[in-house]
Amino acid sequence: MQGLNGRLELGVFNATERRPIAAALLEFLQHRVRYAFAPDRTGVVFGLPTSYAAPIMATRIVAPANDIAPVWAHDKGHVRGEGIEPLYGSAPLAAEEDESFYALLALVDAVRIGRARERRVAQSLLASRFAK
Length: 132
Description:
Blueprint: E1 13-14, E2 19-20, H1 22-36, E3 41-49, H2 55-58, E4 70-73, E5 79-84, H3 91-97, H4 99-113, H5 116-130
Parallel strand pairs: 4-5
Antiparallel strand pairs: 1-2, 3-4, 3-5
């Protein structure tokens, strides 16, 4: 649905109260973000691990030995992997500053680019974070 300003309204924000609608946002992140924000792959780069390669997921998902980790390209990146365009350009910088925010962004990326098992694990972890 188009809003008054021509932007796509996702129904996850209460403009009157100026806050997100938690249940709607969780549903969007768990089931729709992969379609609305399909990631661009940028080739092999050095960067910050995301999705199943990020710390929040790495202990829960065992990647195949020959798999190349998904990363956000970053000048200070220490992991060579497949470049994934982040939701927002400064996401890697923000992730460096806030571990909890990094975890949320990586979980969203696991939903965006992950295989079925990775998506299920990320969806479950997102739900537990929203329940707090």
